[in-house]
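Practice problem 4.
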């Protein structure tokens, strides 16, 4: 979808969209508590009209949990989660994670746990997905699950069910296919120590954390220091609302099992998507419903904005999702900005380093100097701070690039034409409606 973005200013008050990071974690933790106790738990969030309003990623998690036998109902701001213990022994669940890295990396350990767990469990569970997700990292998580009993088949084509039989052309190793998806999970997961490089994706750690309370004596051992640490803390915090305490620094263990502590929990407001409103030119948007004490690392946007007058220096090791919008801020600032800890950005929904280099070149008529130093793990942006000139840009099917282009229009004197505006549906389907509501045209 092409979106024409004329020069605008944004003004007004808006409620923070629900944090998809919070919702993923609460939905899964509530589901596993239901699995343990079969009671009923409610998750309070924004009063949207349908699950789809929460974005493709949250919808994918809901669909995957449903495929595993969990009943998840949504009505007017309330998710109700239950587990009816269905007999899935003769079924072949196919979990469509769409383009959600969080859903895939959280659900893969759960699937490995549920496969062949009881006489009512499925014997195989398949995953399919799209976009850039099949090319994003997954093998470290696959390897540590395989060491502890899970088995994985990477087929040539997405599996299908014909009668009660799985039909696919097997590739016995990942090396032949070189794609993370599709994949089928088999075997039977046992307790043990899950060794994982935590510098590749914090989502690997979170996915394993969810199953720790289900496997007596299991632990997680970091083989490299964790990055995006706030997201790991968010997982621990979500689990704590269901009776689980995670302990340890380099070796993590879980105390107690999932248990119902309260009937109702509340999803947080989202610092990641609120950052776009906060970073708009003029600083005239007030965002309500954000928790300054949240574990969300993207709350760093406040300190970044406060320090942006003559250039920005920040390390994005623990807040990589802020990189696109902070790149816009840096390019709109008179000075030199040094953005550190950017190496993982090449393996997001797009190569975000290349995407932002091209976007900023297009909207500034190549006047912004953007240098990526891989050895130093930095991006340096030098700008005069002159208004952007406008231009044609692509979202690269990446929601955060699309929203960054929208905010760039608040710093521009010419129109920005965005190709791929629909990519915001991944995390914030109401973004363009909210953008229009806050818009004050300047020309």
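Answer key:
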């Amino acid at each position: 979808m092409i979106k024409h973005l004329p020069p605008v200013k944004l003004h007004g008050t808006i409620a923070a969209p629900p944090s998809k990071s919070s919702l993923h974690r609460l939905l899964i933790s509530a589901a596993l508590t239901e699995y343990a106790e079969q009671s009923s738990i409610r998750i309070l969030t924004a009063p949207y009209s349908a699950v789809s309003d929460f974005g493709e990623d949250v919808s994918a998690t809901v669909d995957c949990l449903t495929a595993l036998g969990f009943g998840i109902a949504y009505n007017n701001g309330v998710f109700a989660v239950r587990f009816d213990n269905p007999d899935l022994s003769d079924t072949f669940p196919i979990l469509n994670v769409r383009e959600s890295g969080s859903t895939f990396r959280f659900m893969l350990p759960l699937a490995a746990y549920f496969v062949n767990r009881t006489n009512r469990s499925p014997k195989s569970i398949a995953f399919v997905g799209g976009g850039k997700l099949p090319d994003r990292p997954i093998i470290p998580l696959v390897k540590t699950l395989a060491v502890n009993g899970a088995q994985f088949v990477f087929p040539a084509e997405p599996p299908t069910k014909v009668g009660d039989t799985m039909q696919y052309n097997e590739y016995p190793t990942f090396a032949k296919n070189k794609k993370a998806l599709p994949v089928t999970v088999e075997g039977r997961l046992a307790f043990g120590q899950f060794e994982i490089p935590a510098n590749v994706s914090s989502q690997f750690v979170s996915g394993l954390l969810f199953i720790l309370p289900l496997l007596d004596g299991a632990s997680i051992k970091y083989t490299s220091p964790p990055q995006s640490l706030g997201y790991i803390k968010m997982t621990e915090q979500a689990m704590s609302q269901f009776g689980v305490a995670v302990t340890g620094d380099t070796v993590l263990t879980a105390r107690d099992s999932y248990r119902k502590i309260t009937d109702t929990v509340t999803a947080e407001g989202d610092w990641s998507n609120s950052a776009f409103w906060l970073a708009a030119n003029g600083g005239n948007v007030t965002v309500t419903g954000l928790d300054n004490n949240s574990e969300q690392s993207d709350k760093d946007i406040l300190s970044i904005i406060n320090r942006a007058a003559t250039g920005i220096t920040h390390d994005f090791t623990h807040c990589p999702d802020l990189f696109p919008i902070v790149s816009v801020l840096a390019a709109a600032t008179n000075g030199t900005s040094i953005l550190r800890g950017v190496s993982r950005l090449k393996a997001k929904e797009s190569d975000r380093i290349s995407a932002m280099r091209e976007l900023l070149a297009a909207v500034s008529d190549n006047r912004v100097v953007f240098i990526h130093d891989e050895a130093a793990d930095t991006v340096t942006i030098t700008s005069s701070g002159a208004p952007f000139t406008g231009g044609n840009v692509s979202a690269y099917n990446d929601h955060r690039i699309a929203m960054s282009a929208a905010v760039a229009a608040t710093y521009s004197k010419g129109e920005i034409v965005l190709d791929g505006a629909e990519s915001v549906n991944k995390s914030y389907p109401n973004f363009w409606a909210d953008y229009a509501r806050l818009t004050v045209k300047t020309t």
